[in-house]
Amino acid sequence: MPDQDAPLATIAAIGRYEGQSVRLQGWLYNLRESGKLLFPIFRDGTGTIQGVAHVKSVPSHVFDALKGLTQESSVMVRGRVRADKRAPGGYELDVEDLEVVQRVPESDPYPITLKEHGVDFLMEHRHLWVRTPRQAAILRIRAEIMRAAAEYFDANGYIRTDPPILTPAACEGTSTLFPVDYFGDPAYLTQSGQLYVESTALALGKVYSFGPTFRAEKSKTRRHLTEFWMIEPEVAFMDLDGLMELAENFLAHIVASVLRNRAAELETIGRGQEKLKTIVRPFPRLRYDEAVEMLNQAHRDGHLEAPFAYGNDFGSPDETWLSGQYDRPVMVHRYPANVKAFYMEPDPKDPRYALCVDVLAPEGYGEIIGGSQRAASLELLESRIREHKLPMEAFQWYLDLRRYGSVPHSGFGMGIERAVAWICGLDHVRETIPFARTLHRMYP
Ligand code: 4AD
Ligand code: MG
């Protein structure tokens, strides 16, 4: 048993113990053997460190336990911390003692080796894949993005109000609802907390929700999950201009926090900081019509295959191209009302347009935020609900918000996984969440 008197350290903070003996608890990430010298690499969840064990400098039972030890065996180690400029974290560990907690049997070795594996294989072993330094770094950055996102609202007077996940009606169209049998009545997994935070915004002023949302998306794109996390602010008396300003400040805060607190992880995943350092306000703003003009020009110049059909929502290639034109997020506002959700306020200057905004992340990442000013008039909302063939009965409570003290109000939703994909520079959202749910994957 490694000496209990030595302090228990983490690899991330091991520099504090230079020259001392410490204990580590973790796993054997890799082992290089060269005759009388063993070079184990340990990981403990906070980082990795290389150890050194010479046959003459460690007790023979320690050398024997380490020699041939299998990848991902769990261990407790004692060793002396030595600064080494060539080591990735700046330190190495001269092993003194070691106890194997569980030895992975040779007959059933850890399935993820250090060689290349296909994505399907890795997703099938996601419960183990999260141990690799790259995946662990992405999850740390994800956690920082979620922390900073909530922090922004908490620090600016927003109250977190949690909407239900089981809901009686659609928020974002009826084609992507997951039905649930609710004691014999139909119910659905929520697509967005929006309708409920509209209610709490009229009670508390400035609110946000942060939780899982669901879309029965039949699409297999690199941007779509069936279960994802959304953070949604909603503010009474805020208009579309105020909302765009909020989106700008919010995104700038998140990126600055990642740069400040997760520089080492960005380095681990090979994400350069230059592309993130440009994410400062103001962000460019474009009307939908101007964006369409750019897309048509891009088509004439041969950058886009198809001409853009005015009046449609943007497809992935359009968003990819548009967002690739800027070094920071671009805010596209005032889409034609008929391609957007039923709850959006029409532009008083021209009611064919909705007072809405989509924020497209740079480098071709496409939409990360969708939001709008909300329709404030009871009559208008009722006719929208009818046009969209939504069940009027289920929306009576929502219509009450327009009956009793209706005010202009606005909000948006940011999908965490899309934000993580962009900030980490990943080409697929499946690596941005611990266990991705997609059209063809429910395991593990
Ligand atoms: O644009 P969406 O559909 O907007 C809403 O749901 C509004 N009710 C939000 C609001 O105003 N409070 O979704 C918002 C964001 C998108 O911009 C995207 O980042 C993410 O949620 N999103 C998805 N992320 C991963 N997979 C999917 N299938 C997603 N659908 C939307
Ligand atoms: Mg959207």
Write a structural description.
There is one protein chain. The model has no long low-confidence stretch (mean pLDDT 96). The two termini are 35 Å apart. The protein folds into 2 domains: 11-102, Nucleic acid-binding proteins (OB fold (Dihydrolipoamide Acetyltransferase, E2P)); 127-432, BirA Bifunctional Protein, domain 2 (2-Layer Sandwich), CATH 3.30.930. Helix content is 30%, strand content 27%. Helix 4 (133-155) crosses helix 6 (240-261). Strand 1 and strand 2 (37-43) form a beta hairpin. It is α+β, with helices and mostly antiparallel strands and 444 residues long. It has helices at residues 60-66, 119-124, 126-129, 133-155, 194-204, 240-261, 263-268, 274-277, 288-300, 316-323, 378-387, 396-403, 416-424; strands spanning 21-34, 37-43, 48-54, 74-83, 91-102, 159-160, 166-167, 178-182, 185-189, 206-214, 227-236, 285-287, 330-333, 346-347, 350-354, 356-361, 366-373, 409-415. An 8-stranded mixed beta sheet has the order 6-10-11-18-17-16-13-12. Strands 1-2-3-5-4 form a 5-stranded mixed barrel. Strands 7-9-8 form a 3-stranded antiparallel beta sheet, with no helix packed on it. The structure holds 4-amino-1,4-dioxobutan-2-aminium adenosine-5'-monophosphate (4AD) and magnesium ion (MG). Magnesium ion (MG) binds next to strand 17.
